Amino acid sequence: MPPVPALDLDRFHRDGWAPLGRVMDDDTLEALRAAEGRFRQTPLRNDQDHPDARTIFRSQVCAYAAAPRAFATAGPHLTQVAALLGTGNVLFWYIQFVTKYPEGERGTSVFPWHQDNGYAGALDPAFNLTVWVALDDVDEANGCVWVMPGSHRDGVLPHRAQTADNWYLDTPVEGDGVPARLKAGEAVAFTGLTLHRSLANRSQRPRRGFFMGYADARTRDSDGKLLAERADTWVVMGELPPPDGKVPARVVA
Questions:
Q1: If phi over 0 gives left and psi between -120 and 50 gives alpha, with beta otherwise, what is residue 178?
Q2: What is the CATH number of the domain that holds 80?
Q3: CB neighbours of 70 closer than 8 A, spacing ≥ 6?
């Protein structure tokens, strides 16, 4: 696998997204493709497939398979994640396979403009990160991710459900954004506040993607609770420091 490319941190902080280059070797890529194929056939407890949609979501899969868990918690991309977050204490807290089936001109696999924190809610600090890995070559033809540079500077925007029977959220956006074209095994990172979307898969094959959510280990949700206390979370670099930054005194019985 090629060496991890240097990151332009100034550009990332300005634009809210960055290409990471190739983060999976061939063996890991095949293992993740195999896991996606198994999960695609079996809904899990967190899945929310819309009956008419041509997109399949398989979420929080780490309890069910070693390959996605191993990559998310110990993959080579974690050094990049730490640099982008600006911390040595990194929490992994969300994972998902997203597969778009071919659909011609129907357009039901379109995932509208949104911020990941439009779903997750306000976080403190409000600087979490999504790493989106292509399991297939992706471009405009098969539904790659599009990002809106600079949109992370506007905070969490109002989101609304598209219809009463569809859980997809969206928010009004002007402009088309920038397509993140990737080869299989390559990744793009963007903040939880960066607007992004994906359009329909007009190719002849399913488009397979895999993404992971990371944050500073001390991040709290909108209720003030530590993300680290949720199920399906791991501190993958560093540690979870005490709230006041001090090591608690040992209590001797």
A1: beta
A2: 2.60.120.620
A3: none
Whether 227 and 233 have beta carbons less than 8 Å apart is answered as: yes
The parent domain of residue 233 ranges over 9-237
- Specify the number of domains making up the chain: 1
Structure-block tokens of residue 250: 């040992």
pLDDT by position in tens, the chain (length 253): 655 667 899 999 999 999 999 999 999 999 999 999 999 887 665 555 555 567 888 999 999 999 999 999 999 999 999 999 999 999 999 999 999 999 866 667 787 888 877 666 678 888 899 999 999 999 999 999 999 998 888 776 666 766 655 666 567 778 889 999 999 999 999 998 899 888 889 999 999 999 999 999 999 988 889 999 998 899 999 999 776 655 444 444 3
| CA atoms of 244 and 253, how far apart (whole Å) | 24
Edge to edge, the sheet with strand 111-114 lists: 111-114, 196-198, 145-147, 178-179
Q: What is the pTM of this model?
A: 0.88
Whether 99 contacts 36, CB under 8 Å: yes
Is the N-terminal amide bond of 125 cis, ω within 30° of 0?
A: yes
For the chain, where are the alpha helices, taking DSSP H only? 9-15, 26-40, 66-74, 78-85, 116-120
